[in-house]
User: Fold this.
Amino acid sequence: MKIFIDTANLDRIREVNSWGILDGVTTNPTLVAKENTNFEALVKEICHIVDGPISAEVMSVKAPDMVAEARKLAKLHHNVVIKVPMTEEGVKATKVLASEDIKVNMTLVFSAAQALLAAKAGARYISPFVGRLDDVGQDGMKLIAEIMNILDNYDMDAEVIVASVRDPIHVVEAARLGAHIATVPYDVLKKMFAHPLTDIGIKRFQDDWAKVPKK
Assistant:
């Protein structure tokens, strides 16, 4: 499974990229706003750091405007993927962009029906938000299973990006279900390293090594 980081913070992107496990980056308007910098310049810098898909979201609500905005963003770098919201206008825009070989990440997906429409329209990536579904009492990972089943039934090319990830369990379950990608916040990525038995083991080895004669 590919791992993306869900952030627009350059320092965190550089750090996670240095681990050697990073395959791409997703951003959204909320994450970009936190950085208080020019959006296009930020996207270019992220593309310079990470050689992989970099999602940048359009803010227009009508299909023609989405397409125009997406074309401009796509010119920033060949790795830019356009995030388009799951609406009727978004699906219309996706169909046009896909015909022009501009990769689309259909975002704000909360049902298998929406995912099916996104795949039919030619979205390269589909982003179901599992954490937000969990927040309202639904099973986010059940949705991932449904979407993966549908894509497999018809051999569709779209890749599923498990989004709104809240903890390492979401990442593990996504991998168990065969999801193509999980886009993970920095704090959750850090938690994936942690296990108390690992810490105990390192401490024990260090203590024992200190007892070994050095001459």
Notes: The longest strand covers residues 80-85. The domain at 2-210 is CATH 3.20.20.70 (TIM Barrel). The chain has one domain: 2-210.
